């Protein structure tokens, strides 16, 4: 599998998140192609709810990639092979199955995709910010509603939710 931009900085958010589960990882790269994963009933039987490393999708990805381990968060996945991790984004279909699985309804067997991160979200991509305070919602008096999904595994790098 071909890889693109990478980081070795220990201050990198992606690397810090992976090291919580796999301390020996020293490099995180973005995937440059989508990957197809087949989730079987056997994967669901071996899986644990609210577990980044052992949910049904993580078990299936570990099997398909012959990986050392997998970190499956609600919106991103890291496939660990030795001291290197490959980062994928999760499509909505996988995100919904993760929520369903964590809440006890099971993970539907089938074929799912892990997606390569878009160019704007790649490691090392420049993040554009609004230059003027007139562009943000707070300065215009508009309140933004933020819904937090509960009853699932924690967001990597975020606060613990129960």
Would you summarize the structure shown here?
The protein is of the alpha+beta class and 162 residues long.
Structure characterization notes:
- With 162 residues, the protein is of the alpha+beta class.
- The protein has one domain (3-140).
- It has 4 helices and 7 strands, in the order E-H-E-E-H-H-E-E-E-H-E.
- The protein has helices spanning 13-19, 41-46, 56-65, 92-102, and strands at residues 3-7, 27-31, 35-39, 69-72, 76-81, 84-89, 110-114.
- The strands form 2 sheets. A 5-stranded mixed β-sheet has the order 1-2-6-5-4. Strands 3-7 form a two-stranded antiparallel ribbon.
- A hairpin with a 3-residue loop joins strand 4 (69-72) and strand 5 (76-81).
- It is globular, with a radius of gyration of 17 Å.
- The termini are far apart.
- The model is unreliable at 4-11 (pLDDT under 50).
Total number of strands: 7
Low-confidence stretches: 4-11
The secondary-structure class comes to: alpha+beta
Strand content: 15-25%
Helix content: 10-25%
Instruction: Tell me the domain tally.
Output: 1
Give a topology summary.
Layout: E1 3-7, H1 13-19, E2 27-31, E3 35-39, H2 41-46, H3 56-65, E4 69-72, E5 76-81, E6 84-89, H4 92-102, E7 110-114
Parallel strand pairs: 2-6
Antiparallel strand pairs: 1-2, 3-7, 4-5, 5-6
